[in-house]
Amino acid sequence: MEIHLPSLPLMKIFSYLDAYSLLQAAQVNKNWNELASSDVLWRKLCQKRWHYCDMIILLLHDKETWKQFFVYRTWQEHAKTRAKPEDFTYKEIPVEFGIWAYACYISGRGLTRNGQGTSVICMLTSMTKISTWDIHEGVMTWVSPVQPTTIKLLNTLPEMHIAVTVDIHSTIKLWDCHNSDALATNSLFFPCQSLKSVFTKDGAIVLVSDTLGNLYIFRIPDLHLISTVNVFQCGINELYCSPQKKWVFLSRKHPQISPKVFYMNSLLRTSEFSAPGSTSLDFSLCDKAFWTPRKEDRITLMSICFPHKLTKFVTFDMKLKEIGNQIIVKGYLIASFSLVEYEGTLECFGVSDKDVIVCSTGSSLWLFSIYGVRLQTFDYCPEEILRLWVDPLHVIVTFIDGSLDVYAWEERCQQLSKCYRLQNRRQLPQQRNLFLVNLV
Question: pTM value?
Answer without folding.
Answer: 0.85
